[in-house]
Amino acid sequence: MLVISIIVVTACQKGIDTPPVEFPQQLGKGMYIVNQGNYTVGNASLSFYRYDSAKMIPNVFYERNGIPLGDVAQSMTFWRTYAFIVVNNSGTIWTINTGTGKIVAKLGGLTSPRYIQVIDAEKAYVSDLYNKGITVFNPQTMSPVGSIATGKSTEHLLLFNNKVFAANWSSYNQTAPNNTVQIIDAGLDRLTDSIVVAKEPNSMVLDKHKKLWVLCSGGFLNEEIPALFRIDATTHLIEKRFNFPSLTMSPDQLKINKGGDTLYFLNQGVFRMPVSSSALPEQPFITQQHRNFYALFIEQATGRVHVTDAGNYMQSGYVFRYQPDGMLIDSLRVGVIPGFIGFN
User: Fold this and answer.
1) 74, 113 Cβ separation under 8 angstroms
2) pLDDT band at residue 22 using 50, 70 and 90 as cut-offs
3) Contact 186/163 with Cβ under 8 angstroms?
4) Cα–Cα–Cα angle for 151, 74, 256, nearest 5°?
5) Domain holding 271: CATH number?
6) pLDDT attached to residue 1
7) Contact 94/87 with Cβ under 8 angstroms?
8) I want to staple 217 with a disulfide (CB 3.0 to 4.6 A). Which of 198, 200, 323, 330 is the partner?
């Protein structure tokens, strides 16, 4: 382990010592890739792929700001001309200008932040892996303004009709069951209801019919059959439950297209499913082959499917881009453990 740590730290230092990238004044249209990096190593990074030049700019955050991104970059949320980058193990949220990549503000001192949901110009929520509650902060000033007690950790957040759905994904260091989706009144900042689903609800989307879809892996130790739920977002009633055929499956990364009529998710391959379907798809839309698919994203403007490949979790990963029909466009080399993509 000591030898591996030395190799990883050395590789990280070499990456920092590389000649600076020639940055345009504006990054332009393209996509940000949030590379998580290795836990406790502090080698998280931000890549940017420019559409006009078809070039990948590595280490955008470091090159633009002269400081490292931090330890385990988790997610990215766009708001107005800004983007919030959540760095999980550093307990930090960076605000950057999406056009330049330069730091605008910082919120630190968080426990283990995961995902952000902006409510309005004065309020945003951030979920937390270890803290049994949600932190409320002002997205303009990046100052904390309160918290919401949930009694358990929270993961993905989704806003609908002034209420926020919070997935209770993790069972780490808690006795409360991790098989619920909690509902928070975004006006009162108060927990009002919860929906029991299956273990580890890991991702959620809202379709064109205002139905909430929740994907559950069934638990880290395969305690339950994985399941996909369709829930009425207004009444909170479960309308359908789709059980996966095997206890050992771990589906995750539920996404939806711009039209809100087609679901996508990972399950050792990319699967595609109309929201009107009466059964889960049996065959993958895109096969994983010898890759290690890690995260999935749909570019809303084009319908293109983007899948990250974490490889061996130690070396640089890749982003594979596919046309809406599943035909491979290309692959792009990025940083260590690419876990999130934000389209600029």
Assistant:
1) yes
2) low
3) yes
4) 90
5) 2.130.10.10
6) 41
7) yes
8) 200
